[in-house]
C-alpha cells in the first residue's frame, strides 16, 4: 500500500503533469487570463470525472490510496504515456495493470483524434465494450454517460442484456446480428485476457441472469462488425438515421464508435443542431 511519502510524490507528479497540459490540447477552450500554461485543478477534475476537492487533497498529499479507476482517469486526463501511466500507478501504491487484463489506457494520439472530431459523435470503448470516454456530441446524441453510475452500467453488453439498453432502434434481424457481435466480442476478449477478474465476473453475471446471453455464449455464436445504418430515437429531436462505424485501434485494443449523417439531409441538420448544444468537455 502507499506510504505517506509515496502519497506526497503522487500529488507532486499529478501537479507537475497538470502544469504541462495546455487546455487546448485537452479539448478545452483557452479563453481568459491564465496564471499558468497548464490545466487548472477545476479542469483536471472535470476531465477526470472527480471532484475538485479530491484533486486538491491528492495534490497536497492529504488523500491516500486512490483507486485504480481514479488513477486511470487522471492518467487519461493528463495524457500520460504508457510509461508515465505505469509510474503513476506505482506512486499510488498500485500495481500497473497486467498484460492479461483488458487495456483501458487511451493513448494521447487517440485523444488528439477525438479533439479533431469536435462536431462528430464519438465514443471509445475497451475490448469488452465498457465505455471509457464519450465526447460531447456523443453525449448529446445517446445520453450523457457521466450521469450513469460507474461499473456494469457503463458496459454495452450488460446494458443491452440486463440494463436499460440504448436509443438505437432495432429490427428483429439487426437485433440478432447486434447481439451475436456483442457476445462474440466478449468471448474473444475473455480468450485474450484470461487474467482479467472483472471480465470473468461480468461474463458470469450475464450468463446467470440473461437466458439470451447464455444461449448465445454457449452456442459459440460468432459475428463481425459491419458498417451499419442505425435509427437513433432521440427524446428531443425525434428519430435520426445515421451511419455507425466501429474502428479498432491496433496495439491497444480499443473500439472507437463514430456516428455520421449523410451531408445535405435533414438528419445532418438535426445532428448538427444537437451537437451544437454540447459542451467542450469529455464525459469520462
What does this structure look like?
This protein is of the alpha+beta class and 284 residues long. The chain folds into 2 domains: 4-91, 434 Repressor (Amino-terminal Domain) (Orthogonal Bundle); 108-275, 2-Layer Sandwich (Beta-Lactamase), CATH 3.30.450.180. It contains 12 helices and 6 strands. The chain has helices at residues 4-20, 41-48, 52-59, 68-77, 82-91, 108-115, 136-142, 156-161, 172-192, 197-209, 211-219, 266-275, and strands spanning 122-125, 131-134, 168-169, 228-234, 238-249, 254-260. The chain has a 6-stranded antiparallel β-sheet with strand order 2-1-6-5-4-3. Helix 4 (68-77) runs antiparallel to helix 5 and helix 10 crosses helix 11 (211-219). Residues 279-284 have low confidence and may be disordered.
Amino acid at each position: 500500500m502507499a506510504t505517506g511519502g509515496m502519497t506526497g510524490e503522487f500529488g507532486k507528479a499529478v501537479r507537475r503533469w497538470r502544469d504541462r497540459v495546455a487546455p487546448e490540447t485537452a479539448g478545452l477552450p483557452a479563453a481568459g487570463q491564465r496564471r499558468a500554461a497548464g490545466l487548472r485543478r477545476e479542469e483536471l477534475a472535470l476531465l477526470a470525472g472527480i471532484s475538485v476537492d479530491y484533486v486538491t487533497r491528492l495534490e497536497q498529499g492529504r488523500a491516500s490510496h486512490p483507486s485504480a479507476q481514479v488513477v486511470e482517469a487522471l492518467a487519461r486526463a493528463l495524457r500520460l504515456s504508457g510509461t508515465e501511466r505505469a509510474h503513476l500507478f506505482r506512486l499510488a501504491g498500485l500495481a500497473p495493470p497486467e498484460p492479461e487484463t483488458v487495456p483501458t489506457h487511451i493513448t494521447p494520439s487517440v485523444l488528439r483524434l477525438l479533439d479533431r472530431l469536435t462536431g462528430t459523435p464519438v465514443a471509445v470503448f475497451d475490448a469488452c465494450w465498457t465505455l471509457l470516454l464519450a465526447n460531447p456530441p456523443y453525449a448529446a446524441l445517446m445520453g450523457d454517460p457521466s450521469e450513469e453510475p460507474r461499473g456494469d452500467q457503463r458496459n454495452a453488453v450488460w446494458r443491452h442484456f440486463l440494463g436499460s439498453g440504448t436509443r438505437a432502434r432495432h429490427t428483429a434481424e439487426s437485433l440478432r446480428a447486434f447481439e451475436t457481435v456483442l457476445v462474440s466480442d466478449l468471448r474473444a476478449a475473455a480468450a485474450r485476457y484470461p487474467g482479467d477478474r472483472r471480465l470473468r465476473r461480468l461474463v458470469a453475471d450475464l450468463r446467470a441472469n440473461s437466458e439470451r446471453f447464455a444461449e448465445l455464449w454457449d452456442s459459440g455464436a460468432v459475428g463481425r462488425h459491419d458498417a451499419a445504418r442505425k435509427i437513433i430515437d432521440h427524446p428531443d429531436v425525434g428519430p435520426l438515421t445515421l451511419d455507425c462505424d466501429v474502428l479498432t485501434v491496433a496495439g491497444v485494443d480499443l473500439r472507437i464508435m463514430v456516428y455520421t449523417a449523410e451531408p445535405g439531409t435533414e438528419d445532418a441538420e438535426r445532428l448538427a443542431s444537437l451537437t451544437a448544444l454540447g459542451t467542450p468537455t469529455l464525459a469520462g
